[in-house]
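Q: How would the C-alpha cells look for this protein?
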Amino acid sequence: MNIRLTKKNETKEKRKSQTCKVYEVKIDHSHLSHSAVTHFNCLFKEAKWFYNYCLSNDNVDNADTTLKKVLVKVGEQYEIRYFDALTSQMKQGIKTRLFGSLMSLAALKEQGNKVGRLKFKGVVNSIPLKQFSNSYYIRNNKIRLQGMKRWLKVNGLEQIPAEAEIACATLIRRNGNYYINITTYIKEEKKHVPDEVVGIDFGCQTQLTFDNGIKVEFQVKPTKRLRRLDRKIMKKRRKDSKNKEKDKEKRRIEYEKITNRKTDIRHKIVSAIVSNYRYVSFQDESIAGWKASGHRKKVHYSGLG
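A: Here is the predicted structure in C-alpha cell form.
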C-alpha cells in the first residue's frame, strides 16, 4: 500500500511540470470487419446496461465491476443480459465516471445550486479506457482494444509527439463513426509571449474588432446539402421510415462538419491571440440579447460565445 501511495505521489509531482493534451484519432470505418462492428455495438449496449446497473445501487461503491450478468428492464419485465464485450477495466472506468458525476452534483448543491438526480440512460456513446497498454494498445498506425483480437486501423496517430507520455483514453461513437480521444502528457515548454495588451470588441457584423484596428470576420453558413436534407426530412406527407432515419443520420453528419469548421476557426483565432498578447481585455457581451434582437443567424453562423 505504501509503495502504491509513493508511486501516486511521484506521478503527481511529475505532472506539475507537464502539459496535458488530448488527441482525437478516428477509427478507419472502411477497414472494419462485420465482427468488429458487431463488437462495437455490443460494447456500447453493454456500457448502457452497466451504467444503469451502477445508478440503481443505493451506493455506487457497491457496484460490482466483475459482474458477468445483469437484470435489464424490457417493457414491464426484467430479463437477464450477459456481458460479452465489456471488460472489467471498462466497467471500472464507467463506475469512476459516474462517481465523479455524483461528486460534482454534490459540490453544486453545497454552493446553493438546485440540482436533480442522475437519470437512467437510453444510450451511452462513450466508454473510458483507463490505462494504456492494458485497456488499449498502440502499434504503428493501429490500435487494439482490450477484449478485441484484431488491430484497428486509425487515422491521426501521427499527431502524437514521440516524447509524449500516453495515459488513459475514451472510446466515442458519433454519427456512425468511432473515435478514440487519447490523453497524453508532454513536458511543459515555456513560450515567449510579447508583453503586449489588446482590447477586443465583439460584434455581429464584424465578429472581433481589436483596439489596434485589426478586424476578424468569420461565418460558416449551412451547406446546400444540409438545406436539401432539412427540406426532405420536414415534408409533412413523409412518415417516419428507415429512409427518413437514414436522412437524419446524414443531417447529423453534415451538422458535425459545420461544427468542426467553426471550432477550427475559433481555435486558430484564440491561438493567434494568446501567442501575440500577454494581456487580453474584452467586454462581457449579452450574446442572448443579440439573438433576441434579430441577429440570431449571424450569431449562429459565427459561433460566438
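The chain has a mean pLDDT of 88.

The radius of gyration is 24 Å.

Upvote if useful.
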